[in-house]
């Protein structure tokens, strides 16, 4: 069942996502060679708890941490560790959510660690751009397929592939609600976008194959060919005036490249 949100609910969702955006902004300051993913997770959890919110991912279906920290060929659901240090030239995708006043937020950013290669930078830029192209489709009367096609067509034009095994989703009182939001699909098809629908849109774009595998930890998803992957996500409300990006950076408006 698809749950449309009232204006009051969207207001609470906006507060939840603004808090999450502030957490992402804070983590950005610590992304540098030598820091461990465990340290990043501690910083994030401390921030969330100080603001009377709850880490949405920790304990969800048994996940052990506040953040998903996925490095290079890791697509999503990487587990923070004291043994994993960021290195010059890495990229790290940080995905997280919080529960605030009973409502979930969800957003992801991919960060470049120190100096990265031009191809790595391009992958991140194209993935960011594909997210904003998807958000630009979020008007009442459009379809879920319009969102997916916006992501897929932009990524493929750049020579990349989108992950098909993991998709975006509705969000609200639950972290994962209907409808599913694939990063592929024919335009004009699928669920109609309606005012009050809130979606977590999350392109995952690979330099190589679209195929993925899950590591022995049961969580970490990696590209099947070891190629790099980037991941960006926003929670977006469909309004009569178009998309309302709930999780956009607070201290850095326009954090993502809207092209």
What is shown here, in short?
This protein is α+β, with helices and mostly antiparallel strands. The chain has a single domain (7-245), classed as Creatine Amidinohydrolase (Alpha-Beta Complex), CATH 3.90.230.10. Helices cover 26% and strands 24% of the residues.
What is the CA-atom radius of gyration, in angstroms? 17 Å
Examine the secondary-structure arrangement and name the CATH architecture: Alpha-Beta Complex
Residue windows where pLDDT falls under 50 for at least 5 positions? 255-259
Alpha plus pi helix count: 4
Number-wise, the strands total 17
The proportion of residues forming helix, as a percent range, comes to 25-40%
Order of strands, widest sheet: 10-9-11-16-17
Count of structural domains: 1
- Mean of the pLDDT scores? 96
The biggest beta sheet, please?
5 strands, antiparallel
Cα-to-Cα separation, first versus last residue: 33 Å
Order of helices and strands: HHEEEEEEEHHEEEEEEEEEE
CATH topology: Creatine Amidinohydrolase
Q: What's the overall geometry?
A: globular
User: Could you give me the name of the CATH homologous superfamily?
Assistant: Creatinase/methionine aminopeptidase superfamily
Q: What is the percentage of strand-forming residues?
A: 15-25%
Structural class call reads alpha+beta
Which class in CATH terms? Alpha Beta
